[in-house]
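Components:
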Amino acid sequence: MSILDRKLRRDLGHLATQAVAIGMVMASGIAMYTMALYALHSLQTSQTNYYQKYRFANIFCNAVRIPADLMPRIQAIPGVSAIDQRVVFAALLDMPNMAEPVAARLISWPDSGKPRLNDLFLADGRWLDSERSDEVLASHSFVAAHGLKLDDHLEFVINGRKRRLQIVGVVYSPEYIVQIQPGSLLPDYKRFGVFWMSHRHLSAAVDMQGAVNDVTLTLERGATEAAVIEAVDELLAPYGGTGAYGREHHVSHRFLEDEIKQLTIMAWVSPTIFLLVAAFLLNVMVGRVVALQREQIAVLKACGYYDWQIGVHYLKLALLIAVGGAGLGLLFGYWLGQNTTRMYAEVYRFPVQQGSLTGTIVWGSLLISIGSAVIGTWRSIAAVISLPPADAMRPATPSNFSTSWVERIGLRWLLPQIIRMLLRQIQRQPIKSLSTVFGMAMALAIMILGSFSLDAIRYLIWFQFDYAQRQDITVVFNQVTEHDVISELKSLPGVSEVQTFRAIPMTVRHQHASRKISVMALGDEAPLYRLVNIKEQIVPTPPEGLVLSDKLAKILGADLGDHVQLTALEGTRRSAEIEVVRIITEYGGLNAYVSPQVLARWSHLPRTCSGAHLRIDSATTTEVYHRLKNMPQVASVNLKGAAMRSFEESFAANILTMRLFNIIFTVIIAFGVVYNHARISFAEQSRDLATLRVLGFTNGEVTSILLGELAILTVAALLPGCLIGWGLAAMLVWGMDTELYRIPMVIEPATYWFAMFVVVVAAFLSGLVMLRKIWALDMVSVLKARE
Amino acid sequence: MGDVVVRALKGVDVALYPGEFVVLLGPSGSGKSTLLNILGGLDQPTSGQVFYRDQELTTWNQRQLTQFRREHVGFIFQFYNLVPSLTAYENVALVTELASRSMSPLEALKMVALEPRRDHFPAQLSGGEQQRVAIARAIAKRPAILLCDEPTGALDLATGVLVLEAIEQVNRELGTTTVVITHNAVIAGMADRVIKMSDGKIAEVEQNAMRLRPREMRW
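Structure:
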């Protein structure tokens, strides 16, 4: 080890606490980066491999009934590579441990061989025996959520008839990596299950012999998805096709892609903040070391060390801290990444979840930590290199103080001497003071950014499920039903209010933008499902015109007064131009609403409904559920917000863990920033402080000069920190704004207060650590030592 | 203040000879330190020429000047300027690692009688001891020139004498051309030649018939 390196080692030992504080900030940044990239890499690799190996389709289409002889014509569409046909049917499931009916989706499975697309991974048990009519394959997520075993029997209600089916295999499907019930925003593995049943037996059970109602296909390389979709739609239109869609509108795929998008944002935003703060801290620390060692630098130069050798010597100081931090961060990030991946495995079901610490992550971490160290210290290093040795031999010019602006605006005589001193101290080194304020503000912002999502989810639940929707359950019929079904529903015991609705799949088009959505005609029987605008005001369904959700309006570029074209994807397939008369706020999906009158006039058909919202007396819930399970026309029963609530519950623990990490990260930054500032201020002022002590100032008075400075800087960081936190949260909300769901931009005052509390406590703690040093100040030796 | 040009040195013409002991005498601000810095390649004059042997220092770039200092010049400063985080031995080794013809750090410490304190840090040494470590550091590379800027300025008399003895010994035993800056006229007795400076100029040059040992001088 060269002598300079030995000096480096001792210098580092001397700066140990500061170095650790900065290294921890660096480590936090690298940990976040590693964690996000690890999880990202794991999700992406698992997804890609899964899709490829199990032949996940590119295009998905449903129709009422597609005759088998249509298949060659679909296959013949230019650009289509492979097609697969099947029967998909919604059923109810009566689980003994749950009062409410569970929604099930039954999918037909070829009687011999494997399907051409959307193959399954058999995790347990065996494939179906096509000779037997009572066997199903069950999705792993459902089996796990209910603690089911192979050979367990389940009670289904298929097409109004009860069927007892046995689980013979547990499977994973690339189509249901995330399993979300139609009409729901989030996965709920207890209340929605996917099952595969022999094609022959399922067709028979749902009267689909000789036909199918679902076609999926893959594209040839270079084929245009939109063109194929158009051709498929044209072919399927006469058979009740509801519009083909690509992967980007496939719920499971979309959900996974959104998570990937979110992780990508996370991989950059948080680490950038940490590394910026670390760079600032290194800047201040190395700047101070260089100033303090001015004469040593001169001696080294006089002795014949090259400028670059000395520059490298000080750069090494920063690099050691950075690389040490990066190493620690990598380890911690790896651990966090593994845990995050494990957490993901509860939602995203892959047969094999891959994950590894790739070279890219490791080298990337090292590179960005080195980069931030170099950026943080280049100013000081450049000063070291250009310092003329003869200049350095002379002591540095005394610090240049001036009266602070607070004093200059006339408050001078109001301020006690000590306050004046500390104000001047802050103002004398604006960069150091600003760095500290910036660092603290960032600590606060990180805290807000990390905790606001809980506020947002809670607000969303309140807005969507407590305020806008007042029903308890939503019943969906397996086919369009006469409106008089309302009397049957009303007669159920304990049902107090019923509001029917009719959902029609439609293409909505405005100028060049179009989407396939469900247009909802809300019945006027009872105001259960209410439309709400951005100001949280209830918007009654207008008798004329169309109501658009804000996201849909934005996508279509349609504003109030614009006319949009609606084309029904069922029945007569009529088109009409309708004026947009209201725009409402919704956080999930893309929706449009009309009054039943508008729909009736337009379709020339008697009033029908596809489902109903029910408000029920909690005492009779079980009875209502029981009766619904036995109504042949009921396809599914959605408990309002159940998915959201179960999601919140199952993630409450994770959210708490994340919050804990968040607090740790915030404390690391805040503590590091304040401690760094305090150490340097103390070193710079120890002579003055000792002089004051000699002059008769008490320990408390001397302490207040140093800690007062920290207090002022901490308070100064609070407002900018809240603003930056708000800005980052808004950025995240903007980044996560998808067609599937949006996050409301809501940060509760309590979140701000708590974040400020954490930052102030961290600052206070580092103040306490400094207090010990101040009180141990040896006046005599400090005054004797030459600066 | 930036517009006022201060000329530290004006028309200085001086030659130093191998093995010579020169004392630069003069009050503060007379230009002694500037001259020393220029001689040692720490500073460049705005005009004029400086030669070392046959080479013109004034045409050299920073890198060449560094190389020159590394191989040929030893510096001793008023405030010792030891690296506080390195022991006595390591402070000397700082230089011996660089130069090609250097003696071992231990040898250098022996010359200033500090070998027993080799593992002490500067803060554990007295002022005189620190300055002797600085001397060991300066001479360890066997420099052709030893430049001392007020080497006893911060020391009491007895310690100062010890330090001067060490410098004198180096000059005698290694034949190092030695320049000592001082404003203490008594030290002039040690020199072969005394150059008196005032106001940036050489005011007077005196040749001593006989060099005195530091102990023999009347303080």
